[in-house]
């Protein structure tokens, strides 16, 4: 009876928040509904634990608080993704233990949801992943054209295919020293998969940024031009995301905000990206006085560095800054903002679903490249070890 009452309270609150968000011009469903769901769950589990004279929920909440504080201190660290994944596994174990003690219906429902998620992930095994990657690569190449950046999902699919064929048909037929040599590839893939999982987790969490409507500057990051003079659809979405925030802040608070259009002129471009972005913004009715051009940068890192100089030219004691880019790009952009001592969070523009796997892979490679020295040292040591094992195995066989 108690469980039914709490379920009723949950659904009434859920529907109330949903209806309120529908009435807003800038409807935001995920964060308010997610906040209500988590709050309800914590309160419910705490009540059940108190009734059973146990307080295991305290450990789970302490872990969650640690993750939150670490995230607030620096949102752009991969360790935050790792900590959240550890917490997620711990929470699943806690729910299982909780259900064994209480046989609670709501806890059972949560366990079923988690099991569906985990088993769904497991069923999405290597063969299914390879098929999906091949399918995705064909779509990307067809719609976006052939380039190294657009070949990433295809390259990954080919590597996984080689590993699958080796494990299924060759591993038991080759000498042990050959197996040692070949194991360098799957080990490296497993190593990077661990980091990719943490990267993907924190990247998705970073999407939940909801900056307050009291910003002084919004930086729009450049992304190439059509025929060297017009913004691409991808870049237009970045600008539109910034303009949406610009309009909402003015309408709801009246607080003025400057838009910094950041992007230099490439060797094959007729104008700078910043200039083309300004023409686009002017066509959307934005006053010229609210647009600032940063037309010297050639990368995301220099976008942040040169935009910071523009911000510092104004007499703000502690300017409030955000930046706009595509959703897959804002986490890495946030890293460069921090490296340039620019306290700014990102807001992401939507990207076509078919393009996201390729885009996230490219972002991940770029982040790995930022710390390539430590990764290469570790993998180099592992490679040396496997080579020694292969040599030892070869000598023994002889």
Automatic annotation (TrEMBL):
The keyword Repressor is annotated on this UniProt entry: no
Transmembrane residue ranges: 6-22, 29-47, 53-71, 78-100, 106-135, 147-171, 177-206, 376-397
DUF218 domain boundaries: 216-365
Pfam families: DUF218
UniProt keyword annotations, A-Z: Membrane, Transmembrane, Transmembrane helix
A single GO cellular-component term on record: plasma membrane
Presence of the UniProt keyword Ion transport in the record: no
GO biological process: Gram-negative-bacterium-type cell wall biogenesis; peptidoglycan metabolic process
Highest taxon listed in the record's lineage: Bacteria
Record-given protein name: Membrane protein
Species in which this protein is naturally found: Enterococcus alcedinis
Lineage: Bacteria, Bacillati, Bacillota, Bacilli, Lactobacillales
């Amino acid at each position: 009876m108690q469980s039914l009452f709490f379920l009723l309270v949950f659904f009434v609150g859920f529907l109330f928040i949903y209806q309120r968000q529908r009435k807003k011009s800038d409807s935001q469903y995920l964060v308010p509904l997610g906040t209500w769901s988590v709050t309800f769950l914590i309160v419910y589990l705490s009540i059940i634990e108190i009734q059973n004279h146990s307080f295991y929920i305290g450990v789970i909440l302490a872990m969650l608080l640690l993750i939150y504080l670490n995230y607030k201190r620096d949102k752009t660290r991969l360790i935050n993704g790792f900590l959240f994944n550890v917490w997620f596994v711990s929470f699943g174990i806690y729910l299982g233990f909780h259900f064994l003690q209480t046989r609670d219906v709501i806890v059972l429902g949560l366990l079923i949801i988690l099991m569906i998620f985990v088993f769904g992930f497991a069923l999405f095994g290597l063969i299914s992943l390879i098929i999906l990657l091949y399918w995705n690569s064909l779509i990307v190449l067809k719609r976006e054209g052939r380039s190294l950046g657009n070949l990433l999902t295809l390259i990954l699919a080919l590597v996984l295919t080689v590993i699958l064929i080796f494990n299924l048909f060759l591993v038991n037929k080759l000498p042990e020293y050959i197996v040692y040599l070949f194991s360098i590839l799957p080990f490296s893939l497993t190593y990077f998969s661990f980091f990719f999982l943490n990267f993907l987790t924190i990247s998705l969490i970073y999407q939940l940024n909801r900056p307050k409507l009291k910003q002084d500057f919004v930086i729009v990051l450049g992304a190439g031009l059509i025929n060297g003079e017009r913004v691409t659809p991808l870049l237009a979405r970045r600008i539109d995301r910034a303009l949406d925030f610009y309009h909402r802040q003015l309408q709801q608070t009246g607080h003025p905000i400057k838009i910094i259009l950041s992007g230099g002129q490439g060797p094959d471009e007729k104008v700078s990206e910043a200039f083309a972005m300004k023409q686009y913004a002017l066509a959307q009715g934005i006053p010229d006085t609210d647009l600032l051009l940063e037309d010297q940068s050639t990368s995301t890192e220099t976008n942040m560095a040169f935009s910071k100089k523009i911000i510092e030219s104004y007499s703000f004691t502690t300017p409030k800054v955000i930046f706009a880019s595509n959703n897959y790009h804002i986490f890495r952009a946030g890293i460069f903002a921090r490296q340039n001592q620019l306290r700014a969070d990102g807001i992401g523009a939507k990207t076509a679903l078919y393009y996201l796997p390729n885009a996230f892979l490219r972002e991940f490679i770029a982040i790995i490249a930022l710390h390539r020295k430590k990764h290469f040292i570790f993998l180099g040591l592992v490679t040396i070890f496997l080579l020694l094992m292969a040599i030892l195995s070869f000598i023994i066989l002889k």
